[in-house]
Amino acid sequence: MNEKSYPIMRMKDHTLQIRLSEKEKHWIEREAKAHDLSTSEWVRSIAVPQKNTLFQEIIERVAETEEEHKSFAYAELHDFLAELKPEEFSVVLRLGPQKKCESQDANIVAAMVEFTAYKLGQKNPGWVNEVAPLKTPFFSSQLMSLRLYLLRNSPILFRRRNLFIDTSIGGRI
In principle, which of 62, 82, 107, 153 could form an S-S bond with 161, CB 3.0–4.6 Å? Predict the structure, then answer.
C-alpha cells in the first residue's frame, strides 16, 4: 500500500484518553456499531473529519502545481467544494488552508469558498477575510476580445477579489 495512493491513511502512534459517563460510553459504542466502525474509528471520524485532510491536500496541490496545470487542481477543489453538505461546510473549512499559497491562488481559493458558502447559505469562514484582494486584475483569458465579457460576467465574489473568470460552461473556473 502506497501512502501517495491512500492519503487519508496515516500511522496512528498517539493515544488520547477522555473521561466519559457510562451512559456516554454506551451511546458512543452503539453509534460506532450502527456505523459498522470500531469505537476509535467512529470517534476519530467525528473529531478529525477526513474531508478536512482532503481539503488540505488539495490546497497543497494548488500551491505546488505549475501554472500550466493549475486548472486541474482548481477543478479538483471545485468538485470537492461542490460535494460539501451545509452541515459539513463550517467544520471542514473552519481552519482554512495550512499551506501558504501565492496571492493569486489564495484569492481564487477564497473566492471559491465564498461562492460555496453563498450557494449553501452558510457564513464565510473567518480566514477568507484575511486574504487581501489582488492589486492588479487577473483575467482567466489573455484574449483582449474576451476581457469586456469577463469584466461583466464574472461572479461578484470573484470580481471583488479582482478575479475575472467565466463559469458559464460547466460551472468550473
Answer: 107
Measured CA to CA, the distance from residue 148 to residue 103 in angstroms comes to 23
Residue type, 21: S
User: CA-CA distance, 116 to 65, in Å (whole number)?
Assistant: 23
pTM of the model: 0.71
pLDDT, tens digit, for every residue of 98-155? Answer: 999 999 999 999 999 999 999 999 999 999 999 999 999 999 888 888 899 999 999 9
Contacts of 73 (CB under 8 A, 6+ apart): 58, 61, 62, 65
Residue 28 to residue 5: CA distance in whole angstroms: 31
Measured from the Cβ of residue 124, the count of other Cβ atoms closer than 10 Å reads 17
